[in-house]
Amino acid sequence: MTIKTEEFLLNLGPQHPSTHGVFRIVLTLDGETVVKAVPVPGYLHRGIEKIAESRTYTQVIPYTDRLDYLAGMLMNWGYVIAVEKLMGVEVPERAEYIRVIVGELARIASHLVATGAYAADIGGLTGFIYTFRDREEIMDLFEMISGARLTPSYMRIGGVAYDIPEGFIEKCRKFLDDFPKAIEEYNGLITGNEIFQARTKNVAILPAEKAIDMSLSGPVLRASGVNYDLRKARPYSVYDRFEFEVPMGAKGDCFDRYYVRILEMEQSAKIIRQALDQLPEGPIKGKVPKVIKPPRGEAYAEIESSKGIMGTYVVSDGSTQPYRVHFRRPSFVNLGYLDEMLKGWKIADVIAILGSIDIVLGEVDA
Amino acid sequence: MENLFVNMASGMRSLLASAGLPDTATDFILMFLKLGAILVYILISALWLVYMERKVSAYMQCRIGPNRVGPLGLLQTTADIGKLISKEIIIPRCADKKLFLLGPILIFMPPLAVFAVAPFGKDMVAIDMNIGVYYFLAVASLSTVIVWMSGWASNNKYSLIGGMRVVAQMVSYEMPLILSIVGVIILTGTLNMSEIIRAQENVWFIFLQPLGFLIYLIAGVAETNRAPFDLVEGESEIICGPFTEYSGMGFAMFFLAEYANVVLVSVMATTLFLGGWHAPFGLTFIPSWIWFLLKVYVMIFLFMWFRWTYPRVRVDQLMEFGWKVLVPLSIANIFVTGIGKYLYQTIRW
């Protein structure tokens, strides 16, 4: 007797527990093995870039919160730095330091979500709760400094909205002191687990050349062994004053992509510690006119966000509203190689690979 | 206390006999009463285990867990079941309606049937079958067919994948499960559960068969489809596997059956390896059935501990581990046990 077999189509998403939102992948499967994968983004598209054209420059800031909503501070930063470049505004030193502190806190928060969600993707739900427990501390810090937890809208063109409140520095230091113990816990619970390693090591190896070709950035690129971090390569703000390393992976498999984030969190904690020590006194906002009217022209500026290089392109026609705003969203660009990466792996690996890229749908779909 | 349930049964018997019923009728009624008692135990146990699972997981995850409904949240699962009963049972348009509805009805049958031979305490076994272990293995694996059937009948791709995984997993893990038990059977020379327990009066078989116990434990987790072998449900991959399309009470039945199966595997582990109702350290003032249940719940706690610690293995790793590690190990275990028994019998060593 001959059994006829055929490939079948599985529509993974947009509503699926592990696509980190509303991402959709159309998989062609041969049993459990992926033959072809077609990513379909766009289910969370809100047209932020178009909305920005009918808002004033300051009014765009809350919309940037909703790009990568796991690291709203960094998204704020990526936008304001472009407008500042366009206007030629000088940002006071204290504001730069505060930006570094909240930015690195946001990076830790974002990586904590990535780590925990990755553990949940692999099937260990407990890791998820542990990272979220510690992320909560950062959310509390954000609430102290900006009044909001997830969408702070804290940065302003030329500085930050409010000065550091009383008790913030102590609380932040306490968090940093407790953090190494927390990392140890993650390593014990997630990283060191045999099953976790079996599931992630040697899965979907991304060669360095390919990663560069596809313009990937952030932890995904560095996991492949490429030493490129904007904070080191082209220091913006005051990053040239801090001592830190750029963690890199050796192989570029899922495990490296996961582990680079853990190492990066340690480095971020190191940066925050230094920034708190060096924090100067002074104003928190530069000399910016009440009505922001950048001169006619265009500017592009980029920062190293938690997911990769976040760039903002702003065109001004001399009015109070931007003529055009474009965001280079790292999550979206990092997805570029996904279809190739998924080929030949099992359904369970699809989730592991997607999780290791760490996408945020707010950013992918803008 | 020791003979509480045994006395209740004999009291019932004499009551029925004094009412002038013939012996066969008394036996018949008594059998039904025993099975009814087991049914009540399983259902209450399943409810309790859902609560226990939530509490255990909560404490492992630095949470508190249910604490609002009833004292300490004890009525939480009851409330949940009430909610699920009141929900609409949705039948997908393209599903095979009869098989789809049959799944949740049948899923409770195998565990119920197997519990009939479970020795809950000294002389406390509903039906003392002389092929108890064999019966357990044969009937317990039937639930695979039911899960597969429900997955296929749902006409959903996730369900189908889950259903296929059930079969693959059962075939690969039933083997080491059976082979790990063979060691115990070699030692005792019987398939009767009560006699296996009686043979452990001096030393529990976990000490004579440590490897067998380990293999049984791993294969047992796989049999109950719990983490790290919960590929069948694989929440983060295939939504809920074969149960994806079920709603309301249909889903609840699968949910509770999972816990009934966990109890079942733990009962077997206790019977075969942990000395059944025998009291350790001569603590015989505590009734045997309390000891038995205590051991069962320790085993269940172990299963929960696994579940809330380990991530999920991949389907090919699962197969590889089953066939390339567990099966050879369990065969080696049988070999060593056989030689050991032979040496013991010939040279009295």
From TrEMBL, chain A:
Which keywords annotate this record? Answer: Cell membrane, Membrane, NAD, Quinone, Translocase, Transport
* Presence of the UniProt keyword Translocase in the record: yes
Catalytic activity line of the entry: a quinone + NADH + 5 H(+)(in) = a quinol + NAD(+) + 4 H(+)(out)
Q: EC number(s) per UniProt?
A: 7.1.1.-
InterPro entries assigned to the protein according to its UniProt record, in alphabetical order? NADH_Q_OxRdtase_suD, NADH_UbQ_OxRdtase_49kDa_CS, NDH1_su_D/H, NiFe-Hase_large
Q: What Gene Ontology molecular-function terms does this entry list?
A: NAD binding; NADH dehydrogenase (quinone) (non-electrogenic) activity; quinone binding
Q: Which family does it belong to?
A: Belongs to the complex I 49 kDa subunit family.
Name of the protein this chain belongs to: NADH-quinone oxidoreductase subunit D
Give the originating organism: Desulforamulus putei DSM 12395
| Taxonomic placement | Bacteria, Bacillati, Bacillota, Clostridia, Eubacteriales
Encoding gene per record: nuoD
UniProtKB/TrEMBL annotation, chain B:
Single GO BP term: aerobic respiration
Chain segments annotated as transmembrane: 28-51, 99-121, 133-153, 173-191, 203-222, 259-277, 289-309, 321-344
Cite the entry's keywords alphabetically.
Cell membrane, Membrane, NAD, Quinone, Translocase, Transmembrane, Transmembrane helix, Ubiquinone
Predominant subcellular localization, coarse grouping: membrane
What compartments host this protein? Cell membrane; Membrane
Q: How does it sit in the membrane?
A: Multi-pass membrane protein
Q: What is its EC number?
A: 7.1.1.-
Provide the reaction this enzyme catalyses: a quinone + NADH + 5 H(+)(in) = a quinol + NAD(+) + 4 H(+)(out)
Gene Ontology molecular-function annotations: NADH dehydrogenase activity; oxidoreductase activity, acting on NAD(P)H, quinone or similar compound as acceptor; quinone binding
Subunit structure and binding partners: NDH-1 is composed of 14 different subunits. Subunits NuoA, H, J, K, L, M, N constitute the membrane sector of the complex.
Similarity comment = Belongs to the complex I subunit 1 family.
UniProt protein name? NADH-quinone oxidoreductase subunit H
Gene name of the encoded protein: nuoH
